Amino acid sequence: MLVILPTNNISFINHESAVCEVEKYIAFYHYKRRHSALGYMTPHQKYIEMKNAA
Questions:
Q1: pLDDT digits 0-9 by tens, 14-27
Q2: Quick check: helix, strand or coil at residue 8?
Q3: Using the 8-state DSSP alphabet, how is residue 54 labeled?
Q4: pTM of the predicted model as reported, rounded to 2 decimal places
Q5: 41 and which of 8, 45, 51, 54 could share a cystine (Cβ 3.0–4.6 Å)?
Q6: How buried is residue 45: exposed, middle or buried, by Cβ count under 10 Å (0-12/13-18/19+)?
Q7: Is the distance from CB of 18 to CB of 6 less than 8 angstroms?
Q8: Weakly modelled stretches of the chain, pLDDT under 70
């Protein structure tokens, strides 16, 4: 089965490979990508900061 994501025409051989890529992006988004709205922290860093402040 060929899976195609419409936003940028990425093709995957099967569902598992699509899931793997989505999981890698989610990990990048939460642990590596800095967000200007969070003071250039990652969401995980902000979560830890807020958790420690409570």
A1: 999 989 989 999 99
A2: coil
A3: -
A4: 0.69
A5: 45
A6: middle
A7: no
A8: 1-8
DSSP for the chain, written as a single string: --EEETTTTEEESSHHHHHHHHHHHHHHHHHT--BGGGTSB-HHHHHHHHHHH-
pLDDT of residue 54: 78
Unique residue bearing structure tokens 């025409």:
9
- The answer to whether 52 and 44 have CB atoms below 8 angstroms apart is no
Return all residues near 19 (Cβ < 8 A) that are at least 6 apart.
none
Q: Are 30 and 16 in contact (CB under 8 A)?
A: no
**Are 42 and 32 contacting, i.e. CB atoms less than 8 angstroms apart?**
yes
- Rounded distance between C-alpha atoms, residue 25 and residue 8, angstroms: 14
Phi, psi at 3, each rounded to 5°? -105, 130
